[in-house]
Structures are given as structure tokens and as C-alpha cells.
Hints:
By secondary structure, the chain is α/β, with parallel strands linked by helices. The chain is 53% helix and 12% strand. α2 packs across α3 (39-70), α5 packs across α6 and α12 runs parallel beside α13 (220-228). It starts with 13 loop residues before the first helix and ends in a 6-residue tail after the last strand.
Amino acid sequence: MPGAEARPPAPAAWSERWLAWRNRLVANPRFQRWAAGFPPTRGIARRNTRALFDLCAGFVYAQVLTACIRLDLFAILADGPMPTELLSRRLDLPLENARRLLRAAELLGLVRSLKGDRYALADLGAALNGNPGIAAMVEHHALLYDDLADPVRLLRGQAQPTRLSGYWPYASGTAAEPEAYARYSALMGASQAMIAEDVLDACDLSGTRHLMDVGGGEGVFLEAVAARHAHLDLTLFDLPTVAERAAARLSRLGLGDRIPCRGGDFHAGLPQGADTISLVRIVHDHDDRPAQALLAAAHAALPPGGRLILAEPMAGTPGAEPAGDAYFGLYLLAMGAGRPRRSAELSAMLREAGFASVREPKTRRPLLARMLIARKMAAPS
């Protein structure tokens, strides 16, 4: 109210005063040295020192992985251990630099050293051999690193256009050449294969008659559905240029007749006829208003009792919290659209779109994808 006296700030709660005192104490260099030597706090101090160092060195660790992938180290070691000297020749690196890379990769859990100056794959390196989508994403991160070179400019909105926004033209709503669609569709397809089986393991499609995958890319998810559910009618819906690429790819796989591909824009509505619609890693790519419009379009396209399957990485995932707001938060900012959302937030959006019920089945690897299944209210009997 004009003329009213400014009120003094409310006194801080005791928990906040305790937190402020504790932070001042932890920031004190003398306390840090004492805690590092005092037996009851020594372990905590050392873990905190390691965590802070890892935050500072994270980019270097990622570049060690990038070097291993670009040099094809994991494929070279796929058939068994190899002496360092032979590896240096296969990698086309000086012996000491090959040894430097191998030691770094060992400490990151990618390879392991054996007797006789030999190296073999460790679990993480072996897993990368079976997931080409991860290697594709690691290479793709070169664009993200460029956009994050000055993170403050990015956060202030002063770094546009970003390289990622050019890579994902649909995020900014701009038209693009066919090569751009080919580039991002191939990346999406490679990474989609990692989670398609997880989604299908967690979702019972036995009662489904017709599944339409919206934003289906080149059809990797529906390819997995077709392999498991011979009884289902399947439809892929995406932007016209992407749908054309999907149709060509699925025809080469002998699935052209099984999976028709329809091109369009969800802003103009979605085709009707499917009793189940899937959105696999689609909603988090959109800002709130278009995301809500997409959910409403899905609700309108479904018959009474129809289901919507929403699967994507979500913020606040227990045990994988940094993947949501830290990784996807900054990635989607650089991309130019979307944000990570929590399960409860997505559930509220689904209900606002008109869905009567929402449940969350458990997935095998929730860091990669969690899932919500929403059902449209059935017709009155």
C-alpha cells in the first residue's frame, strides 16, 4: 500500500540460522584443515574434497571418454586384452601418450590393467560397446560444450543462437534443410534404442488395439513394439520430413506395410483412430505452453478409455538427481526449448489436459526414462 512503512524482514527460522552458521564454519580454511585431520570428520572432509575436485575436473573426464570413443579403443579391446605397445600402434599414439590415456581410462572405470603391461575392457567400457547410442551422444556433446563455454551468457539469454538450437531446428520452430532432419533423426534413433525395451518391459500393451507413436522419429520405438506385439496396429506421427525418412527406413526393414507414417504438426491436432498414444522423450523438449497443448491434443485424439504413455527422463529421479536439473536443465536451455519436469508436475499437466487417472509403473533404468500412463475417462455405460 502506498505510504505504508516497510516491514522489517521476518526473523529467520532456527534451521536457517543454523545453516548460515554451519556454512560460515565450513568455509573457514582453519576449520577445513582441522576437519581433514580430526578422525571423526576426516572421512567426510576427504569425500567433500574429492567431490569438489570431480566437479572441477568433470570436463576433462568427459574428454577422456571422447578420446577413447574417437580412437575406437573399446572396439579394439572387444576381442580381449592387448599389450600397451600394440595398443599404441593401433591407436596411432606415441607410447607414453597411449599409456597416459589408458591410465586415465582405467581410473574412470573404462578399462582395467592386467599383468604384463596389458589392458582389457572394464564394465563401463564393455557396456559402451553394446550401446552405440551413448557413443553418438558423447560425440554430439561437442556442440553442447561450445554452448557452455560461457554458461553465464547462456543463462542470461545472451548466447543466441546456440549450436544446439541449430542442430534441433524444431526447438526454435524454424524451417530447416533435409540434412538437418537427417542429422538429428539419426541421433534420436541411435539413443532411442537404449530405452525402447525398458519402456516396453514396464508397459502392458496386451489390451491395446492401435498404438500411435507421436514424435516417433525414424521409427526405432515402433520397430521394437512390432517385434513384441504382432497383433497391434501401429502408426508413426512426426513432422512431414521426418515421417518420410521413417517410412523409407521402415520399408528397408520390411515394416513399411506394418507401420504407416503420417506427417503433420500436433499444433493442428493429432490423427484419431488409436486407442493408445505414446510420447517417448518428447514432452521435455517443449516449453510449458506447447507441452500442455500437446497433451491436450493427445487427449482429444483418444477415444473414451484410451491411454497415453509418456516416457522420458524426469527431474528429481531418486539416485539420479543431477541428470534432471543439472544435465537436462542446461542441455534444453542450450537447445532453445523445454525443461526437465518432475513426475508430480507432469501428472498435474496430464490431469489439466483432461485425463482422469495417472499412474507411474517402474522402469528398469529410471535415469534414462521414467514412465507415466494416463487414461482418458471411459464413456458412461
